[in-house]
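Exercise 3.2. Students should predict the tertiary structure of the chain below and write it as structure tokens, then compare their answer with the key that follows.

Predict this chain's 3D structure.
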Amino acid sequence: MKNLIVVVGSLIVAFAFNFFLVPYGILSSGISGMAILIGLITPFDIGLLNLVLNLPLVLLGYFKLGKTITINTLICVVSLSVFLYLLPVVPVTDNILLSTIFGGIIGGIGVGLILKYSGTSGGLDIIAIILSRTSNVSIGLLLTGMNGIIVLISGAAFNWNIALYTLLSIYLTGKMIDTIHTNHIKLTMQIVTSKGELIREDLLKSIYRGITITEGFGGYTQETKHILMMVVTRYETMQIKKIVRTHDQKAFINIFETIEVDGEFAKN
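Answer key:
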């Protein structure tokens, strides 16, 4: 199901590119934006460029973010490249401002869905996730900041009107990503289980977060339980639940939002 959503998100992003942004030379964020730029000034296909430029960063994601997110990223990069190749470049509207606004919003919806379901669209998303995991800065804000160079290149290659439209599109994409993904929100997870040691070992292999373990006593079952407490990002909750359910289908998981973290939370 997650892979299907990643593919759908890729289709949404490709739709935003080919029907709103590319017809007017407006760049998107990240490596995809670089692919659009090179594609506009060379005869190379944008879809193929997106695939080639993303491969080195996909390898970085494998070492920093793990196997699961890398597989989803590969699915996204390949499907996005295919959709960019297959979909025609046809403007939906003859108004460049409307194309900028809707291209940025629709593209942000697609990327937000991809990020929400443990994937990235490749490129700077990978770097933004790595930086976000070691700071309290949201992914959308990081992407907006890093894409300043895209705006400068756009202005130098075309004109500064296009550069400003590009900046508006990137800003709207970043805001939409934060609205959907909300990875930067910190959550506290309490896991009540009889398989505490097995879950602890598996979590420490996969999740770069501290774990506090206490013993509890079931009021109904009168069994001794382990209570594992972790402060994590929303991005990590799906992977943690998957690990817990692998060892204990009956584990009780309580998740609630954390207002503030004071201490060594952001670990790579």
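Discussion points: Residues 160-181 form the longest helix (22 residues). Residues 2-181 form one domain.
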